[in-house]
């Protein structure tokens, strides 16, 4: 019977999510994984965002109680700072992002934003404070304008276009048959990986969150597109606290801190230059990626180097 009700539960949650007006495409993208037991604590208050400082304190977590995935992960990103997370496939990088968004409750430890435990604030206020640019965004079967406008309820056409311009997709949209009214998604125009990422960036710019999670695409975009997108991402992360799940080390040389995650543990941490000097795992990855960059095909992921 529970198998019958679970989909209904899920539907109910989708409905509530939309009704609450959560700016929550991010939630949709991993919704199927979302356990229904995450609930607002009794008397939960709205998150009071100051600068968006993020802190993980000895976080232990497993999707399944029998299999712990994060074994006591700690880091602190000051307001406006950038943390890069690298490591092999399955290390737990995306799990960190999901926990920050509170798709799951942790087993022990604490996750704080501006000194407030995220388990004690309303989910709506938490999710309003965080923008995610996922590696592969699912578009709504609607117009491209709607897909961007979803970032902020009541956005005006001028605001939508300003966001699109900043994400460098405005000119592309003007060249489409019906401009901003062109339908996209499964039943409309199919966008390339790079175009979808720009839509995600435009949407996030409209949302204007103090905390940003960038889940870098694993599949390589062509190098010109990639460079352009990196420039835009660097711009939008400048004023915001940013966690970037990185696959290409060249994109994170300026990060304030890099953590190398392996099987749910931080095995190295520091700035790029320190890690290269330390001559450990990161240094090996960096040397190999530098060599790959000089020799095509350049499409090698950090994960494949462990
Ligand atoms: P990648 O670089 O391949 O995206 P990652 O470092 O982001 O990997 P995670 O997606 O965080 O890795 O996964 C960490 C571990 O958690 C993996 O062993 C994975 O199998 C497991 N895992 C991820 N999602 C779930 C889930 N919904 N249920 C159970 N286990 C999961």
From TrEMBL:
<protein>
    <submittedName>
        <fullName>ABC transporter ATP-binding protein/permease</fullName>
    </submittedName>
</protein>
<feature type="domain" description="ABC transporter">
    <location>
        <begin position="54"/>
        <end position="288"/>
    </location>
</feature>
């Amino acid at each position: 019977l529970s198998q019958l009700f679970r989909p209904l539960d899920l539907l109910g949650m989708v409905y509530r999510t939309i009704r609450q007006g959560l700016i929550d495409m991010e939630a949709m993208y991993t919704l199927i994984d979302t356990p229904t037991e995450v609930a607002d604590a009794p008397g939960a208050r709205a998150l009071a965002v100051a600068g968006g400082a993020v802190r993980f304190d000895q976080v232990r977590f497993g999707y399944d109680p029998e299999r712990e995935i994060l074994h006591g992960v700690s880091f602190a990103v000051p307001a406006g700072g950038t943390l890069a997370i690298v490591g092999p496939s399955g290390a737990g990088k995306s799990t960190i992002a999901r926990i920050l968004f509170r798709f799951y409750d942790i087993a022990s430890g604490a996750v704080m934003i501006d000194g407030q435990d995220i388990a004690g604030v309303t989910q709506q206020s938490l999710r309003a404070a965080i923008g995610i640019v996922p590696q592969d965004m699912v578009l709504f079967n609607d117009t491209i304008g709607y897909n961007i406008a979803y970032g902020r309820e009541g956005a005006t056409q001028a605001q939508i276009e300003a966001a699109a311009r900043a994400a460098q997709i405005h000119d592309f949209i003007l060249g489409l048959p019906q401009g901003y009214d062109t339908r996209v998604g499964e039943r409309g125009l199919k966008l390339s990986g790079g175009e979808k990422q720009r839509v995600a960036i435009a949407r996030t710019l409209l949302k204007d969150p103090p905390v940003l999670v960038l889940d870098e695409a694993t599949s390589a975009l062509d190098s010109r597109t990639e460079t352009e997108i990196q420039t835009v991402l660097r711009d939008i992360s400048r004023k915001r606290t940013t966690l970037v799940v990185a696959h290409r080390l060249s994109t994170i040389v300026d990060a304030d801190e890099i953590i190398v995650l392996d099987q749910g543990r931080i095995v190295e941490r520091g700035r790029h230059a320190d890690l290269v000097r330390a001559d450990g795992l990161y240094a090996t990855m960096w040397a190999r990626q530098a060599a790959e960059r000089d020799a095509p095909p350049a499409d090698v992921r950090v994960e494949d180097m462990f």
